[in-house]
Task: structure prediction
Amino acid sequence: MYLEVVLAPLIRVVTSASLLARAIDNQVRWGFSFYDSLIVAGAQAAECRVLLSEGLRHDQDLNGLRVVNPFRSTVAH
Result:
């Protein structure tokens, strides 16, 4: 029941050969680790506009996918 009601609706992207190919393209293009590239590919496949990440460069634009570090201070120094 929990799986069907809570977790299943969260699955928007499934692993496929095209998703893995897109991850490899991201890895080559931006020099990310494979796992970061796979996260980016998944967000792109889900047509996300924003990706929250503390590991990728804040405010980077990855072909329309904007990286935002949710822990970055918005206060100017």
Observations:
- The radius of gyration is 14 Å.
- The helical segments are 2-7, 17-30, 34-45.
- The chain has three helices and three strands.
